[in-house]
């Protein structure tokens, strides 16, 4: 009996419509991506790269954008789920969380920790209380950080041991400078929490437009060693990745570098099964 091929999932991509006006970071400093990116822009790129489904992730700190993304998901066959945004330090968070949890496309939550003025935002008492609600709801939690945030994240994970979380973009180490430490040590400490995964994503933009596979290799080698094939997920970070590489090159780089560590079964997990399990999405 012939086994059906496993579906592949890009665990991290974005859409935006500039005229909506809530993307504060989207300005002339990122001019190549200062335009609308919507499903029909991505569809042919997925087909060429052999990717079947995606997880659509927030890129603005507004509930309005979360609603916008959920509308797209309801109308787009390849979007398996949405990771949205809610204000985790707002007294109304419990009610808003309950509201969005009723939407079957809402599969995760992401505060944009990397851009907040308080590096220890995740340790604020009310935020920790709300993080416990996320854990109780068994909702996926995306962690968007720079390496300097990782010690604070580790303390939050200790305080909320049941949280299912994933580190986005391998925590954005200084790949262009080749700086491995203290990122290497602090990420290994995060990997000690069994409920935490890591997205192999966002690397080319941290490496710069003239990146080479060799620049990425030591960073991928480390996440492969500390997270293993059951807790890694491929993510394109498209269209942000276009600042350094087209979609196909991002997918190829991940396959080439991860393929040096894992066989076909492991790669099937990293390029689909792990994301399906983590975000609890239907991929049939």
From TrEMBL:
Assigned EC number: 3.1.1.-
Transmembrane spans: none
Pfam families: Amidohydro_2
SUPFAM superfamilies for this protein: Metallo-dependent hydrolases (SSF51556)
Domain Amidohydrolase-related as annotated: residue spans: 9-280
Domain of life: Bacteria
Molecular-function annotations in GO: hydrolase activity
This protein's UniProt keywords: Hydrolase
Family to which this protein belongs: Belongs to the metallo-dependent hydrolases superfamily.
Protein known as: L-fuconolactonase
